[in-house]
Amino acid sequence: MNTYLFMYDLMQFCGHSWIFTNMIIRFMSFGKDSLADTFYSIGLVMRLCQLLSILEILHILIGIDKSCFFPRFLQITERIIVLFVVINSQEEVQGKYIVCVLFFLWNLLDVVRYTYNMLARTGIYYLPLTWLNFSLCIPLYPLSVLAKAFTICVSLPYFESFGTYSIKLPFPFAFSIYFPYVLKMYLLVLFIGKYLIFQKAGSQHNWDDYGNKTPSNQYRSFHKL
Fold first, then answer.
1. Residue 57 to residue 70: CA distance in whole angstroms
2. Per-residue b/e over 57-72, b at no fewer than 16 CB within 10 Å?
3. At residue 62, what are phi and psi to the nearest 5 degrees?
4. Contact status, residue 64 vs residue 5, Cβ threshold 8 Å
């Protein structure tokens, strides 16, 4: 199973590395003009990587990954909803700068995380990478939550104008679902869920004792986030 998990991490690392490198090269070559068509240039690979990440939920359920289920499930479903339901369904949103910012944050986190995971599977713990893996999430996870929330807010006028996913059921049900309201409720759930996760992480972690943790304990502790 360790070999399988290593190959899974390797596939994710290759996908996210390609996306991250592509974004950097395009920005260096074309500047701000590259931001508007980020989704069109990397969207397919991004969708494939996020769909593949659903396997991580299965890994936890069958017991080959010891991470906590709820935080991982919440993170993966958040990305699936924002990417496929919000961004992919609204072409006008795909060209917004916030999409580029969101993808940058996601891929920066994942390139480091999957690199660390691959080495950890083989028993290698490179100290600078270990430090970066645990430290990078502190500023970037809250920023990614804000970027997801801002992406949803930007999409609301388009869902209101086009009526995407809004449903009005015929008689005798006389019931309608106005999707912008669903997204607004989801924003509340998003912030509450992240608050609970960060609160739990804070109660479980003592970062002052970080230097006293063994690499294996660091690995398990981090993946409870």
1. 9
2. bebbeeeebebbeebb
3. -90, -5
4. yes
Give the tens place of pLDDT for each residue, 161-208. 998 998 887 766 667 889 999 999 999 988 887 777 776 655 554 433
- Total-model pTM: 0.85
Which amino acid, residue 12? Q
What is the residue whose two structure tokens read 């369904």? 89
Q: Any bridge partners for residue 18, and if so which?
A: none
Distances (CA, A) of 84 to 13, 51, 88, 135: 21, 10, 5, 29
